[in-house]
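Q&A log
Question type: sequence-to-structure
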Amino acid sequence: MSDCFFCKSIENKDFELENELAIARFDDFPVNDGHLEVIPKRHVKDWWGTTLDEKIAIFNLLDEAKKVIDEKYNPDGYNIGMNLGIKAGQSIMHLHVHLIPRYDGDVDNPRGGVRGIIPSKQNY
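Response status: OK
Response body:
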């Protein structure tokens, strides 16, 4: 799709890693140093539109991306997340999986991790 930001990134070879069905690129608005996005090469809106082969390719590239981030940034942990649908915060309607490195002290209390998308539910 010519107006899709991620399709343009793929077309322009604006990425760090790739396999047959997916790419990984550093996020333009990173949450933390080393924040990468893993994106299927085929324009597909969300996780449920991907094929099994695309899912496997995404997971394989997450593993490769983690190695790159580990070597370059040495984080203390990770969050992996997807925003699937406008109400879930998806702003680009092309699936992308966030691999977010976490560092000691980057938040006051990391307990609850991704549960923090609804702040009142984070601490349990």
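Response note: The first helix runs from residue 5 to 11.
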